[in-house]
Each structure stands twice: as C-alpha cells, then as structure tokens.
From TrEMBL:
Entry annotated with the keyword Signal: yes
Positions of the Sulphur oxidation protein SoxZ domain: 190-279
One Pfam assignment: SoxY
Lineage of the organism: Bacteria, Pseudomonadati, Pseudomonadota, Alphaproteobacteria, Hyphomicrobiales
Gene3D superfamilies the UniProt entry points to: Immunoglobulins, SoxY domain
Domain annotation Ig-like SoxY: ranges: 49-159
Record keywords: Signal
Signal peptide: 1-32
Record's protein name: Quinoprotein dehydrogenase-associated SoxYZ-like carrier
InterPro entries, sorted: Fuse-rel_SoxYZ, Ig-like_fold, Ig_E-set, SoxY, SoxY_sf, SoxZ_dom
Protein's UniProt keywords contain Signal: yes
Highest taxon, organism lineage: Bacteria
C-alpha cells in the first residue's frame, strides 16, 4: 500500500514522515537540475488545496518577506527569516504563518499560530531542504485571507543527511531547552509595536525517517518535535505544529510583546515525550 502526503489533507502533509521510510520515499521528488526555472510553483500546486483548501493566495505579498540563502552551505540546516508587517491603517492582525518547502517529502515544515493580536511578527528558524526548491511563508490574517512570499533555494539531500550526533548522545540530551531573550542587534530598526525577540532551542535529533544508521545500515524511524506552545502567563504567544523539515536541534527566534508575566515553553515530540522551560533573563516590561 502506498501513501502520498500530498493528497491526504494538511495533517497528512505535516505528519507523513511518521508512517516510515517507505511512505517518504514514495513521495520524494527527483532533484531539480541546475538551470531549471527558479521556482517550483508546479509542485506547490499539487498540494496547495490539501494545505489551504480553495482559498485564494496573494503571491509576492507586500505584507511579508522571506529571506534564505540562494545556495545553502548545508542542506540540513538552512537558515530562514520571515518578517510580517501589517500597515498602520489595517485593522487585521496576524493569525498564522506557515513555512513550506515544496520539494520535501512532507512539504509543510511548520505552522505558527499567533496570540497577542500581533500586527508585526518576526521569525527565524532552520529547515531541511531535500532538493532545489522554493521555500515559502504563507501568512493568514485574522480575516482568513492568505498572503505568500517565496525564495528559491539551491540545496539537496537535507532530509536524508546523517544526524550530527550518534543516537545514544542524542537520546541522552533529548529535550534539553535553551530559552532566553535574543541578543539585540544594534543596527536593527525598533519595531512599531515595541516587540522584543526571544531564542528557543530544543535538543532533539528530529529524525526524518530518511536517515540511515551508519552502524547497521538500517533507516532510523521518524521522530521529531511536532508541537510547541509558548505562553506569557496564561496568554498564548504562539503554538507551533511541526514536521520532518525542521532541522536537528530545532532553533526558533521569534518576536513577542514583553510583559510582566513569565514566558514559558511546553513542547512534545511524536513519541509523546514532553519538554518544558521558562525564559531566563526575561526583559522587564
């Protein structure tokens, strides 16, 4: 029996890797050759309705930007930066931001659903890129409209690249958290909403199901961080639903609105193991 994450709805797209190596290989596309069109729009159209239904998507939207290297130094750790800014006279807020890598076996990398009625949002993370691909950020505003920005990245093999740590070492450090305010960039322009940045890193191998054990030459079963909840007191800053495209040791830098309440994180992986922590060195309100 075959399984295709591109025809199974959004949850199937996110979690297809959990069905094992065979499922991922069925869906894995051929590598795009250098010199081809600098986008993978045709691939995106094969799963767009599964991920977003029949909603129209405004392409090349002025509401958001995505930045990534044109040619990645390491396909397993590709830095991605997303910035969302709504106009001052726009009454809407940011509802969600979804990261997509078109040519990955499970193309929806993560969806961040926001609280705090944000009008600006900044996000940085690291993704695996399995083949030359457009990497996309899709913004959903509070009125349900979708807006998209994309960047073409030349990289290959990110989902099958060997883990940096052996399995024993990875399991020994599983779930260790670093959660703290980000170091301020002196040249960065202050945001209109007064938001600050925080950094979160979770020690986790984030196995994709496509990586081979170097000792016995068998494939390591998929196991990855699939949910993160960040709160400030009882208020949600964001929730994240993730898949196999987040890199090993997932790292996320995000903007939030400082307040008096402590900022906490609760996360879990596909085996149901939970991790939690509180921000250290939290800025004063």
């Amino acid at each position: 029996m075959s399984f295709s994450p591109r025809s199974s709805g959004l949850n199937g797209v996110r979690l297809a890797a959990a069905f094992g190596l065979a499922a991922a290989l069925v869906a894995a596309p051929a590598l795009a050759a250098p010199g081809t069109d600098q986008n993978t729009d045709k691939t995106f159209e094969t799963f767009r309705k599964d991920a977003f239904g029949d909603k129209a998507i405004e392409r090349d939207s002025a509401l958001l930007t995505i930045d990534a290297p044109i040619r990645a130094e390491d396909a397993a750790v590709v830095p991605i930066d997303v910035n969302v800014t709504l106009p001052k006279d726009d009454p809407r807020t940011v509802k969600a931001v979804t990261l997509i890598v078109d040519e990955n076996p499970s193309p929806v990398a993560a969806t961040f659903t926001l609280g705090q009625e944000r009008r600006e949002f900044a996000l940085s993370t690291r993704l695996r890129v399995n083949a030359y691909s457009s990497v996309r950020a899709v913004l959903e505003t509070s009125d349900g409209q979708l807006h998209m920005a994309a960047r073409f990245v030349k990289a290959s093999g990110g989902c099958s690249a060997p883990a940096l740590k052996d399995e024993d070492q990875a399991m020994a450090n599983l779930g260790q958290l670093k959660f703290r305010p980000a170091v301020a960039n002196a040249s960065a322009k202050p945001r209109d909403d007064g938001s600050s940045d925080a950094q979160l890193m979770i020690r986790h191998p984030n196995y994709s199901g496509l990586q081979m054990d170097p000792i016995d030459r068998t494939y390591i079963p998929a196991r990855f961080v699939n949910k993160i909840v960040v709160k400030q007191g009882e208020a949600t800053v964001f929730t994240m639903e993730g898949g196999i495209s987040l890199s090993e040791d997932p790292a996320i830098q995000f903007s939030y609105l400082p307040g008096a309440a402590p900022v906490t994180v609760n996360a879990q992986d596909t085996e149901g193991v939970q991790f939690s922590g509180e921000m250290q060195g939290r800025p004063k309100s």
